Amino acid sequence: MVFGSHGGGVPFGFFGEGCSAEEAMKDFLNVFEAMREEYFQNTRENIDAEFEFVYDASAFLQKYKGLLTLSGLSRMTGINKSQLSQYVCGRRHPSPKTGEKIKHSAKLFALELATAME
């Protein structure tokens, strides 16, 4: 996973990476802090920023690949198993429409689980 930023009021580019979304987010914030300190040393200008991390469909599938089978995801979303596998492995990324379909299906499944546990 890789997260990157440039713009949005930050006068320098940077990125973070890791084997999981959590590792990439932590690295991203650590790199930002190091770059912020270096920028301050050079310019005496303090940069403050807030970041919002959002899972896209590929990151969601990657995060839960050990808990949800491709067969189950295929039944839940109506998307072919081989196509889902490519998303999980990062060989392809879903289109915005397919990403929304995955997101919607996951939300419905979460609601169904929550209701079943009442």
SSE arrangement:
Elements: E1 2-7, E2 10-17, H1 21-43, H2 57-63, H3 70-77, H4 81-89, H5 96-116
Antiparallel strand pairs: 1-2
Helix pairs in contact: 2-4, 3-4
Question: What does it look like?
Answer:
By secondary structure, the chain is mainly alpha-helical. The protein folds into 2 domains: 2-43; 57-116. Helix content is 58%, strand content 12%. The chain contains 5 helices and 2 strands; from the N terminus they run ββααααα. It has helices at 21-43, 57-63, 70-77, 81-89, 96-116; strands at residues 2-7, 10-17. Strands 1-2 form a two-stranded antiparallel ribbon. A hairpin with a 2-residue loop joins β1 (2-7) and β2 (10-17). α2 (57-63) packs across α4. The longest helix has 23 residues, at 21-43. It is elongated, with a radius of gyration of 18 Å. The mean pLDDT is 86.
Biggest sheet: strand arrangement: 1-2
Helix and strand succession? EEHHHHH
Please mark out the parts with pLDDT under 50 across 5 or more consecutive residues, or reply none: none
Radius of gyration, in angstroms, nearest whole number: 18 Å
Beta-strand content bin: 5-15%
SSE-based structural type = mainly alpha
Number of domains: 2
Number of helices: 5
Summary, kept brief:
By secondary structure, the chain is mainly α. The chain has helices at residues 21-43, 57-63, 70-77, 81-89, 96-116; strands at residues 2-7, 10-17.
